[in-house]
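HUMAN: Ready with one sample?

ASSISTANT:
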Amino acid sequence: MDFNQLYERKGIDFGDMEIRPFLLGLLSAFDNKYQACADRFFEEITWKQFFAIICINLCKVPPTLNELSDIMGSSHQNVKQILLKLEKAGFVTMIQDEKDKRKQRIVLTKQCMAFCEKHDEGSKQVIERIYEGITDEDIFATIKTIFMMEHNLSQL
């Protein structure tokens, strides 16, 4: 496949690059570009901080640091740094687990919920623009592929 035709970038020649390494590179480049765009959109916090908020919000029970690290696919140390900044900004608080006093659970604050509500409509608009011209079928195929890649990665 000629990636130069699909992905026009001046000064770059993909040559006969194999499809698998190309996809990994493309995913990494997309992640970087999306993060930069989201960092501009959320002036108060970074994309990684907002992603942590999304992940916390997905949990039925406030997560522990280890649980959140697993959900985010990031190291304990990186997630701890993100949480410290969110705590300092008043977006999360740590509470002691009722059953196991050694554990702390991460809870979103009212300030955080107000922030999310304030940015909800704008976030939806950005997401719609990102997926413009892409069918649900293509999105599902991409999700399936990435889930399979993630599973294979966890086996390494």
Summary: The chain has a mean pLDDT of 91. The beta strands are 92-96, 104-108. Residues 126 and 132 are 10 Å apart (CA to CA).
